[in-house]
Each structure stands twice: as structure tokens, then as C-alpha cells.
Amino acid sequence: MCVKVACVGGGPAGLYLSILLKRQDPSHDITVYERDPEGSTYGWGVTYWRGLLDQLHEQDPESAHALDAGSVRWSDGVAHVRDLTTRHSGDQGHGIGRHRLLEILAARARDLGVRLEYEREITADGLPSGAGLIVAADGVRSALRTRHSAHFGTQLTPGRNHYVWLGTTKVFDAFTFAFVETAHGWIWCYGYGYGPDRSTCVVECAPETWTGLGLDRANEADGRARLEKLFAGVLDGHPLLGRPGGTPWQTFRTLTNDTWHHGNLVLLGDAAHTTHYSIGAGTTLALEDAIALAAALREHPELPQALARYERERKAALLPVQSAARYSAQWYENLPRYMHLPPERMFALLGQRHSPLLPYVPPQLYYRLDRAAGQLEPLRRFKRWLGPKVARTVHARTLASRE
Length: 403
Prior knowledge:
By secondary structure, the chain is of the alpha/beta class. The chain is 42% helix and 25% strand. The protein has 14 helices and 15 strands. The protein has helices spanning 12-24, 50-59, 61-69, 98-111, 143-147, 149-152, 207-212, 220-230, 232-235, 282-299, 303-333, 343-351, 363-373, 377-402; strands at residues 4-8, 29-34, 45-49, 72-81, 84-97, 115-118, 133-136, 155-168, 175-182, 185-193, 199-205, 240-241, 250-256, 261-262, 265-267. Strand 1 (4-8), helix 1 and strand 2 (29-34) form a beta-alpha-beta unit. Helix 1 packs parallel to helix 4, helix 10 (282-299) packs antiparallel against helix 11 and helix 13 runs antiparallel to helix 14. The longest helix has 31 residues, at 303-333.
């Protein structure tokens, strides 16, 4: 049965869904609407891991091969703390420019017969006529979702720290963290390569550090110059780059929705959920949403059942990721708690920042317990049992205190 699909938003989620639906049934009439001009994407590089690439090879080998070929790889993590450095080997990570990722997906979608309409803004009052399925893949500020926010049960929870998403011509050979102590508190960056001559560099700090350093008052050029001076040790003389039109400081907002569909309208990617950037999962989750929605539409001919299954499966899959993201954000919001440790121990706990137990155990004790748990299976089992139990207890007390 031919289905007319209108996908609003030409990011990774919308483009990949159109690819999968066309592969499932070439007779589907699919149009992707993107309000911005083609090639004008914001952002620098995105990260993903081998598990996602394996999934993409199963779904559409052609686009997966192109994505793999266009990516850079690293397997080390490096942390710079004051004038000390520690390096650890880990799982292989991948980075690709957001612009290149969208090029690959758009080209593949066109080859399969998807219509791509750029510079075409779709509003809640001007939905495409005749579409059997409308996909809101228009990001965290989704206009289509906002119109029905009461139905979706949309909630936005602001984070505490300020951050800015920049690029640099410094090519990092590892996933790099740099922590700098100032008279106004700590400021840090995450850096990773995504091409032969570019890296992403995300800078974050507490609000009192942001204002103390004058970053709230500085114009963009002066602000970047101050950051270049602070992170000179890892930038090696390379500049930090903003995007055309400006690169503002922000506070991260975690988006959740009680339900993800309304009639024939369904939420996808950042329109449905966000997770803190410090776990590097945004693009992966968006593509996994597309995979799940395409599978649900293939296996359930009735739209309500398909959308219900998609929502149910993705919500369940997101629970551990959202928990990890929440604890990761809290780790950075409580960074001074860990900075008195030797760099190798601090870096070890940085790797454990997703743990629900870590915030409630003194850092030195947690480090020793974690080292011991690596050698004793009973202690590993106890740690896995205790962490969620402590987290649930604290969460319940927090809710009770608000009543």
C-alpha cells in the first residue's frame, strides 16, 4: 500500500527515516521539508560508536559505507588537568562533520526517489495536504510539537552550567578533555576530531565562572580570544571558530514528552527527546528512532498500532541513556568534588560519571571500590544492585520534599 509521508525537518533523523521507508516500499510517496537552504547546516562534528555503525550496515549498507568512509576514528581519551596529562585507551569512537553526514544521507535519499524541498518551512497551520503520516523531525524547538504541547506533555528541564559549541583547526588525535582552574572556578572543554583539518571543541563552566571571567559580557570575538588563551595548552596556537551568524552561550535543556504521537503526527529525534551532550548520543538516538519507526510501520499496517509500538520501544530503550545523561551532567555540575584527585583517578571517575552511586560515595572511596570491583565478581554484583537502589531512594525523597 502506497503511503504519503511528509517529514518536516531535514536533519539526520528525518533523512534516514525517508531512506528506510523508501527501501521498504519504493512506492511510498515521501517528501522531506527543510526550512534552511541545502548545505547551510549549523554545528561542527558529531560522534558515534561502532554499535551504531553495525546497525546502519544492517539497515542500508550503501549509506553506512559512505558514513564509515567519511569518518575519522580514535581509541584514546586524554585529560589535561592544570599542567598534568593522563591518557587511557578505550573503545573506538568515530567523528564526522555534520555537514558531510547530511550530504551523505540527502544523496542517498534522492537516489531512492525521496523528494527534498529546501527553504520550505512547514508550520502547524500549513501542514502538507493528503499526507497519511506527518513526521515532526524539526528539532528541540519543534513548531509542530509546540502546537500540541499539552497533548504531548512536553517538559523542558534547564541545566545549570553554561556551554558554547565551537570548532577549531586543531586536529585532536584522541577524545580530549582539558580542565583549567581560574580565579573564578573551573572551566573545561571537550575536543574531538571529525575531519582532516577540523575538530569540535565544546567549552563548559559553572554560571559563577562564566560571569566571573566576563564571558557573559564579552562580544563573540573577545570571548573566543579569552577561551583561546585559557586553552592554549591544548590548542597549540590554533584558533577557535564560531559559526556564521554567531555562536551563543547556552544552558542545556533536557526535553521529554509523555507521549510521542497525536493522530497521524509523530515525533522523531530531538523533537521527542534530548540527552545531555556530554554523553555524545544525540545523533545515535535520532538514527535509532528512525530505525524503530520504520520497523514499526513495516510490521503494523494500522497506523495507531505502529506509532504506539514505536513510542513504547523507544521510551524503554531511552531510559538507561537518559539516566546516564542526567548523571553525566550532574558530574560536571559538581566538578570541584573530583578535582582534588590525582589526574588518573579523576579521569577514571570521569569514565564512571554515569553511575547512580558515584554522587553519594566519597570520590576516593568510590575509586577504591571500583578498582576492587574490577577484580571481584560479588562486589561487582553488589555495586550494580546498590547504585539504582540509592538513586531511587534519593529521587523519592526529592519528590517528597517538593510536595
